Amino acid sequence: MNGQVEEYSVVVVGAGMGGIYALHRFAELGHSVHGFEGAPGVGGVWYHNAYPGARVDLESDSYSYMFDEELYTGWDWSERYAAQPEILRYLNYVADRLDVRRNLSLSTRVTSAQWNPEENRYLIKTDTGRTVRARYLVMATGNLSRPKDPDFKGLGDFEGEWYQTSHWPQTPVDYAGKRVAVIGTGSSGVQAATEIAKTAGHLYVMQRTPHYVVPAHNRPADPVKKERLSRKVLEFRDESYATPVGYVLPPPVGRGVDYSPEQRLQILETRWAFGGQCLLSTFTDQGTNIEINDVVSQFVRSKVAQQVDDPQTVAKLMPTSYPLGTRRLVIDTGYYPIFNQDNVSLVDMRDNPIERITATGIKTREAEYEVDVIVFALGFEAFTGALDQANVRNEHGQQPSDRWAYKPQTYLGLMSNAFPNLFTLTGIQSPSVLANFFTLNNYHVDLVDKIIGYAEEARAERVEPTLDAEKKWGDHCNEIAEPMLRRAVDNYMVHVNRYDGSRFFLPYAGGFDRYVADVDEYLGEKYEGFEFTS
Ligand code: NAP
After folding, report:
1. Exposure pattern of 273-282 as b/e (b: 16+ CB <10 Å)?
2. For domain 5-146+382-533, which CATH number applies: 3.50.50.60, 3.40.1550.10, 1.10.510.10, 3.40.50.300?
3. For ligand 1, atom 28, which residue shows the shortest CA distance?
4. Does ligand 1 lie within 6 Å of residue 229's CB atom?
5. Whole-model pTM?
6. What residue owns the CA closest to ligand 1's atom 24?
7. Is 32 helix (H, G, I), strand (E, B) or coil?
C-alpha cells in the first residue's frame, strides 16, 4: 500500500486497553476504522512492561472489559491481582474474540499526524511508509507509556546488561545468581525488586524517595465472586461508573474527625487486612485534612517497622516527606520483607545520588556498587510523552503539549481547542491515572462515539471545543483540586509552570462518579461547549 493514501473515517493510535475497545466499537458502528500499533503485539503497556513481578494493582474482576457479558464470562482470571503475562493473554483473547486485528497494523508507529483544515482531515504517516487520511484521530496512546529514559553519565561505558522495566525484553532475562541494581522504587521498581530478590546473587534497591507501600493480599481468584458478577456484568459496569475510582472498593467510612483515635486504628487495620487501594479512601477527609492524613500515613509507616528487622533500613524506607496518597500508593506482594534477606541491600540516594555509571557498576557520591545487571524503573514521560512521540500537529504547527505548556487545558479531558477532531482517551483533566483504565476507556470511547454521532447528524465535518468551554472546564478541575493535599506535592501528576511556578493537578480529581455527572451536565442535550462546523 506504500505510495497510496488510504482513507478512513477513524484512525486509532495504540492497541492497548483503549485502542482495542475503540477498534471494536467503531467497526461495530459501521465506521471505516484502522489502528496503528508500534509493538508487534497488542496490549500496550501490558505488552512492554514484561518485567519480573509486574502485576496489576486493582482486582482482576474489575480490571476487565465489562461491556459484553459473553466476553466477560469467557475469561477466568486465576488470581485476585493478575500478573502481566496473564493480562497480556487476556488482551489477546479479547482482540481475537472481537476480531480487531483485521483493522490493525502492528509493528507500525505513527510518525506524524497533521491536520489539514482545507480537507478537514488528518494526514497520518507511519514509519513503514504508509500515508493515511482520517477524519477523526483517536489517541489511545496512554498516559504512562513513553518511558523516562536513563540519562546517567557513563551508561555507555557499562559492560554489564541494563534494562528498563517499561520496555522489558520479550525473551527471558537471566539474573539468577547475579549482582543486580534496581534504580527507582515506584510501583514498577517495588514489584521488580520483590521478584528479583528471590534469585539474585545480590540485589541493590536504589531508592531516592520512599513510597507508601501497602499489601495486595494476592490469592487465587474467587470463582464464586466471578460467577456472581458475570451474571450481571453491565450492572457491575454501571456500579463501577458510580464509584470514585471506576471500580468497586469498600466505600469510605466517613470523616476521620468523627472517630476516636482507637476507632480509626481499628478501621485502618480492617482495611489493611482487606488489602489494595482501599486504604487510600478510608476516610473522606484524608485527602484534605492533614491531621487525618497523618493518622493514615503514620499507620502505614508503623507497618514498615513490623516487617523489617534492621532499624536503620526501616528509617530509610519510611516515607516522611509527603502525606500518603499525594503520590501513587504502591501495592505490593512481599516487598518490605526482602530487606531481611542477606542478599538484599537498600541504597538511599537522597543524600547519596548517583554520580555516574562505570564499566563495572554504579558510582554514587559515597560508594561504588559493582553489578552485572542494572534495571531502570524510572517512570514515564507522563501524559504528553506518547502524544509528542506521535507528532500530532494542528494547522498552526502546534502539538497539544505546546498548547498546554503554560496551563494544561482540555474540554472534558478528551478534546482541546485548536485541535479539531482529535480525541485523547483518558487524557489530562479526565480521571486518567486515578481511575480504572478499563472503565475509563470504555466510557471515553462511548463518549467519542456520541460526539461523532452528533457531528454526523448535524452534517458537520469538524468538531472542536470552544476556548470558553475549555476554560470553564479547566477552572472547574483546578477548583476541585485546590483543597487537596496532593496538589502541593511534586510528582508526575502535578504540572508546574516553568514561567511562574503555578501548579496544576493534571487528572480530574473529583472522582470518576462525579466526572460522569459533570460531563453530562456540561454537555447537556446539545453537546454544549463544542463547535460543529461543515
Ligand atoms: P514512578 O512511580 O514515576 O517511579 C519512578 C521511580 O524512579 C521513583 O522512585 C523515582 O524517584 C525514581 N527516579 C526517577 N528518576 C530518577 C533518577 N534520575 N535518579 C534516581 N531515581 C530516579 O514510575 P513507575 O514505578 O514506573 O510507576 C509509574 C506509574 O505506573 C505508577 O504510578 C502506576 O500508576 C503505574 N504502574 C502501575 C503498576 C501496577 O498496576 N501494579 C505497576 C507499575 C506501574 P523519585 O520518587 O525520587 O522521583
Report:
1. eebbbbbbbb
2. 3.50.50.60
3. 379
4. no
5. 0.96
6. 379
7. coil
Q: How far apart are CA 379 and CA 148, in angstroms?
A: 6
* Residues sharing a CB contact under 8 Å with residue 38, sequence separation 6 or more, in sequence order: 107, 108, 109, 110, 127
Q: Where does the pLDDT of residue 265 fall: very low under 50, low under 70, confident under 90, or very high at 90 and above?
A: very high
For the chain, the straight-line distance linking the first and the last C-alpha, in angstroms and rounded, comes to 30
Query: Ligand 1 centre and the CA of 491: distance in Å?
Result: 9
> Is 382 close to ligand 1, i.e. is its CB under 6 Å away?
no
Residues 348 and 206: their CA atoms lie apart, in Å, by 6
Residue in this structure with the C-alpha cell 510501583, named with its chain if needed = 187
- Mean per-residue pLDDT over the chain, rounded: 96
d(CA 442, CA 345): 43
Which CA distances in Å does 479 have to 200, 218, 467? Answer: 48, 37, 18
- Block residue for cell numbers 474482576: 61
* Residue boundaries of the structural domains of the chain: 5-146+382-533, 155-227+242-376
- Cell readout for 325 is 496518597
- Bridge partners of 124, per DSSP, are 113, 132
Note the pLDDT tens digit of each residue in 54-64. Answer: 999 999 999 99
What are the contacts of 116-125 at 24+ separation with CB within 8 A? 116/395, 117/395, 117/420, 120/420, 120/421, 120/461, 120/462, 122/11, 122/392, 122/421, 122/422, 123/5, 124/11, 124/36
